[in-house]
Amino acid sequence: MPPRTQVAIIGAGPAGLMLGALLARHGIASVILEARSRTYIEHRIRAGVLEQGTIDAMDEAGAGARMHQQGLVHEGTILRFGGRSHRIDFRALTGKAVMIYSQHELVRDLVAVRIAAGDPLELEVEDVTLDGIETRKPCVRFRRAGQPHELACDFIAGCDGFHGVSRAAIPADRLRVFEHDYPFGWLGILADVAPSSPELVYAHHDRGFALLSMRSPSVSRLYLQCAPDEDLAAWSDDRIWSELAIRLGADDFTLATGPITQRSVTPMRSFVAEPMRHGRLFLAGDAAHIVPPTGAKGLNLAIADVRLLAEALAAFYGRGDATLLDAYSELCLRRVWKVERFSAWMTQLLHRHDAPPGAELGHRLQLAELDYVTSSHAAATTLAENYVGLPLR
Ligand code: APR
Ligand code: PHB
To answer: Relative to the CA of 16, which ligand 1 atom is closest?
Structure first.
């Protein structure tokens, strides 16, 4: 590893790896520092809906071949309530579509590109600390295999997720945090069974939300609304499948079941930290913001941040123009808040919750809004244009 680089990237999740790949395309050097092993980052089960902007970034990074071979293009999605299905036609409403391709497969593709290019990816590092972020000569210190290392750089990209060290490097009196923890979570499963629907199904039910998604023509991914601290041991496979069948139930639908290969409970949160830049430190992805998964936006928002950051760094190194770097935080946050709004709206609309004005009235208002969204061209277009991805800026 060189003792100095242009951009030190902390974290080899989608944000850090994509930033490294896009910078390489501009001939900008970077070093990625990651706390976990290659096996861990390449097998961490997360979401899997890609906006067109993320697909374009994968192609720009030279990492899109497998995605185009194995990804499933979806031109619409299903909203189900009152036991009836309503299709939102993304293609007709926006001219765009999304792609189903697992986040960990995307990470694998980006790792492969980085290693093939011989660009530094330091895995299993420890005790990462940031220094000099308010100077023109920041550096990152860390330990690897017990040895201390110091990496000098021009800029630090904090892509180390919600629990990373980068955000904490910004003085508390300079950071503003907005957050909300939802009073429910998702019980998610992976199952070796062909998806029971050609498109995703978002189901509103008085027993709670359910989502039918997929990973491939033979692997399904499904979610149930549950308590944030739900006890997985209380859920037998039969109970999971029968609850899914009830909540996803509709006249024209039969849920196929199969072996469950992975299960987990995920709490749900909305979180934004402002600003996303402090001196020579730039935050991107989950290090700066978290969205509830209902809008499938977490991954896409992380990629949108680093597309902007890569463009800004390319302008700085290419022609000494710091305008975009100076506007980075403001430009990102404008988009982040819109995506937070959409994700919160989808969450409020589709989950059973007892928030005021009272469960029953709230439930009826949700049904009325679902009826409006699925019967108004204008409202359906609003959902579709947010789901397929808002412009980068
Ligand atoms: N030092 C080095 N690496 C670290 C440290 C640290 N102190 N702390 C965390 N990391 C690494 C993690 O191990 C992880 O691989 O940073 C990476 C952060 O990756 P993600 O959490 O995936 O965050 P991001 O790249 O912003 O991607 C956001 O991931 O969590 C999903 O829903 C989220 O889809 C969204 C996407
Ligand atoms: C997923 O496939 O894991 C998934 C899809 C859509 C969502 C959330 C998760 O809104």
So the answer is: 25
